[in-house]
């Protein structure tokens, strides 16, 4: 099929006109890294469930992408929009790779940067920004995901130390991490701790048999009388506002990341229908095909515009949690619809790892429910609009 006069997905709404030259250059750099370093291996990493996290963290750290939206301690202090575009390009390769960056930067590093002491920032953040130290974020428990307030992990005073007991589940990178941000219930509320994973009593194991996010290390960890000093406690964090603020940071990256996954699916489908012959003409030449393509492109463009708008609000310091919920709810929901629709266009080829579509679709099943399920975000938005909490 001739490409003369063909409009690209990104040029359909001229979205690049909304970006600065610096943003475009950064996006191009990350896209090239993804195409050259990540995409040639991603199908194998997904199929085997093995991903070289430590090697990748160092490489990504050298690009300045870990904790890039934080300031100081080896972090570049980039704009929220720039960080979002990085998440978009990484998730265009695979959600697991974006998760590596967002868990490191928006959960573990953000918790230390925002709620930690100066000593903790100096101890952990430079190595984490370089990718030489890996962090994880322990909030979710086997029985408490959407309701973190019910957590059973405890922190008990013992002299000048704290004793931590409990378990956390569905924790990205816990089994390869150097430091775990642990949230635990104490007598005076929920507290956060930066716990070296070498501390006696800390144990982690990788969770296997996943059908989604296979190119990501997912773990559970246990705390068995883990003794940490007072200076391991994050002094600025008290109550659920601590971990919830970190989750809002991570959700922001997903708003952009989901757009990347959807875009990759649509680009793959466009390429396929342009060459696939059905009844003596290309699949692209059928009205039903073009209707599907048009609808997906419109939804993708709307999701991108929403992400950019939220990026601007965040850069101006005006973003609210319910606005992040709008972005996460809409963009992931539409991305998974696009992935599933693209799968139909590829027919049987859509279920193989020769194409990225089924991999994205599987990954987005996880993205749909982590960092707050769709139902949780609906209730956040509903509360903002009605003034009534429906969580209980």
Automatic annotation (TrEMBL):
UniProtKB keywords: FAD, Flavoprotein, Oxidoreductase, Transit peptide
GO molecular function: fatty-acyl-CoA binding; flavin adenine dinucleotide binding; glutaryl-CoA dehydrogenase activity
SUPFAM superfamilies, per database record: Acyl-CoA dehydrogenase C-terminal domain-like (SSF47203), Acyl-CoA dehydrogenase NM domain-like (SSF56645)
Acyl-CoA oxidase/dehydrogenase middle domain boundaries: 136-226
Stretches assigned to the Acyl-CoA dehydrogenase/oxidase N-terminal domain: 21-132
Enzyme Commission designation: 1.3.99.-
Reactions this protein catalyses: a 2,3-saturated acyl-CoA + A = a 2,3-dehydroacyl-CoA + AH2
Residue stretches making up the Acyl-CoA dehydrogenase/oxidase C-terminal domain: 238-385
GO BP of this protein: fatty acid beta-oxidation using acyl-CoA dehydrogenase; fatty-acyl-CoA biosynthetic process
InterPro entries according to UniProt: Acyl-CoA_Oxase/DH_mid-dom, Acyl-CoA_Oxase/DH_mid-dom_sf, AcylCo_DH-like_C, AcylCo_DH/oxidase_C, AcylCoA_DH/ox_N, AcylCoA_DH/ox_N_sf, AcylCoA_DH/oxidase_NM_dom_sf, Glutaryl-CoA_DH_mitochondrial
Cofactor section: FAD
PANTHER family registered for this protein in UniProt: GLUTARYL-COA DEHYDROGENASE, MITOCHONDRIAL (PTHR42807)
Family: Belongs to the acyl-CoA dehydrogenase family.
Name under which the protein is recorded: Acyl-CoA dehydrogenase
